[in-house]
Amino acid sequence: MNGGVIWIPIAAGAVAVLAGLFLIRWVLSRPSGTEEMRAISGAVQEGSMAYLNRQYRTIAMVAVVLFLIIGFAIHWLDALFFLVGAALSAAAGYTGMNVAVRANVRTAEAARGGIGGALQVAVRGGAVTGLLV
Questions:
Q1: pTM for this one?
Q2: Backbone phi, then psi, for 5, in 5-degree steps?
C-alpha cells in the first residue's frame, strides 16, 4: 500500500471527529426546556447511563478474553490495536448516548417553535454517534 494513501482515512476520521465535536457543542447550546422537561430528561439520562454501564461491563469481560486470545494466537501488537479500537468504540457509544439523550429534551423544546427546528436538533444530535464511530 502506498504510504501516502494511509493518511486519507486518518484525515477523514479526524474531520469526522471534529464535525462531531462541533455538533455536540451546537446541540448542547440549544434551550433545554422547562423545569419539568429537564427533570424527565434527567431520569432518562440516568436510566440510559445505567443501561450502558451494565452492558459495557459485560462487553469488557469479553474484550479482555479476546485480547488474550489475539495476543497469544496472533500478536500482542494486534491485541493492543483491538483493545484501543474497543475502547474508542465504547467512548463513541457513551458520548453518542449522552448527546442523544440530552438532544431529546432540546428537540422537544425546539418543537414548541415548529417542526423545522425540532428536526434540525434531532438530526444533529443523532449524527454525533455516526460521526464519532
A1: 0.83
A2: -70, -30
